[in-house]
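ok trying again, last paste got cut off:
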Amino acid sequence: MQPYQGCGYWLMLGRSPTNAMETRYRTLVAAVERAIKDADPIGLLEGGAPADEYGPKIGTIVPRVVNAQSIEEVTTVLYEEFVRWFGDDTAGPSHPYEAPARKIWEAVLEFRKGG
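nice, full thing came through this time. structure:
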């Protein structure tokens, strides 16, 4: 299976993404956001941060996890992005990222099934 490369990939092939592809991608983005919000791995929401606090981070996470080959890779991506956005001290250890990674991995597999 060809890895998903974003809309630029489709245009390079002389095709445009279909509405179905766009819908599936939006569903994946929503699933990633929900998994991260539910886990709140660094406690921002619990500490009173706005509900959309993780929103901008989702935009850097989804393009990376869409091509992940394992749940471990998804965990690594989440951890790396949180370190990049918040720093080592705030990101903490990698184990709080395992639960959202499982949910995200399921969403990625579902995304890939769509065609």
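cool. Residues 7-113 form one domain. Confidence is low (pLDDT under 50) at residues 1-14.
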